[in-house]
Amino acid sequence: MAPSSLLVSSLDEIEDFLPCKTPDTWIDAALKNQDILLIDHANCEKKAASTAINLIYRYVDDFELLNKMSKLAREEMRHFEQVIAIMKARGIEYQNISASRYAAGLRKKVRTHEPAKLIDTLIVGAFIEARSCERFAKLAPFLDDELKQFYLSLLKSEGRHYRDYLSLAKKAAGGKSIDDRIAVISEQEQVLIETPDNEFHFHSGPPAALTSK
Predict the structure, then answer these.
(1) Are 122 and 169 in contact (CB under 8 A)?
(2) Which of helix, strand or coil describes residue 85?
(3) Residue 14 pLDDT > 70, yes or no?
(4) Distances (CA, A) of 121 to 112, 183, 209
(5) Residue 154 pLDDT more than 50?
């Protein structure tokens, strides 16, 4: 199952948006920690749905945002169900693991006044979805057939989520450029992706044990 030309085009767009590629050492760590990969992936899907629902509660006057976030939340919870079904079939226990520094690290750059807070929050959402999409595509060729097909199947929806977040951010800016805010958050994203992490997560940086050698 190979990505269609449309998906390849979307992946090119996403890679252009992201400030850096996922380090190969992270791919190596993911392949060695597939149980944790799936557990943290499930956590990420829950958190993505929660973020969308929080936006629905906070910004009730934007019907486009309400509709897009409602659809996104449903899709993320469907992905969560798919991940835990794979975990159950493989005998992987769903256990508590520490939270990744990634999303919290990105949100440190979110401004606190409106509409700047909404704009930055949506841009952060775009980066999270774009990075997830990039990692699904990069991991897929190295996985067993079931996981490969599952991760490739997620590319279309994750790419759409990235574009939805970005278009909503542009709308929230009222026609003003958001390039400067994308640049600020992009710089932070690159630091989080390239700086070594002591623990493996779906959005972690390269393993500290490997990068320190």
Answers:
(1) yes
(2) helix
(3) yes
(4) 10, 14, 32
(5) yes
Alpha carbon distance 152, 138 (integer Å) = 10
Stretch among 2-16, 62-76, 132-146 having the lowest mean pLDDT: 2-16
Helices (H), 90-207: 102-107, 116-139, 145-172, 179-194
Q: Where are the domains of the chain?
A: 33-196
Tell me: cis bond preceding 3? Omega within 30 of 0 counts: no
The torsion defined by the Cα of 134, 16, 25 and 34, in degrees rounded to 10, comes to 0
Is pLDDT of 6 > 60?
Answer: no
**What sign does the CA torsion over 154, 159, 160, 165 have?**
positive
Token couple for 44: 């990420």
pLDDT in tens, 70-96: 999 999 999 999 999 999 999 999 988
Give the CATH number of domain 33-196.
Answer: 1.20.1260.10
